[in-house]
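Worked example 2:
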Amino acid sequence: MSQDTKSLLKLRKEIKDRKPLFKRQDYPKKKALGEKWRRPAGIHSKRRRKFRGAGPYVGMGYGSPRLVRGLTPEGFKGTIVHSLDDLKKLTEKAAYLAATVGTKKKIAILEEAKKLGIRILNIKNADNYIREVKDKLKSNKETAI
């Protein structure tokens, strides 16, 4: 990762820290609406017309630098891995493990990633995860007998 990328990641973090939480218009009045941003569409809407005091409005100025858009906080692109073959084809040293992968294959992928020095981004501690899953499988076998 270049020095330029590191500085842009730092800048992105600063921008995101300053960015307001964009909430849907009238979300406190009607519970069913939820807080998720939706563009105001009413012809009399103060927020759509960007009146002062009507709350923050989504805009281009809140975006992060183009070079680091979509990267993880550590600067990885984060490719999704479904199998051991996908893991071996990787060019970078970080990946996400697909949610649809089963437990046994997940353990095999984690062990192979450890050998190759690839970091799995969506599992905090791979060693603990492998140990817990193997213990759980062993206890399931013992109770089944």
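Residues 8 and 30 are 39 Å apart (CA to CA). The beta strands are 79-81, 94-97, 119-120.
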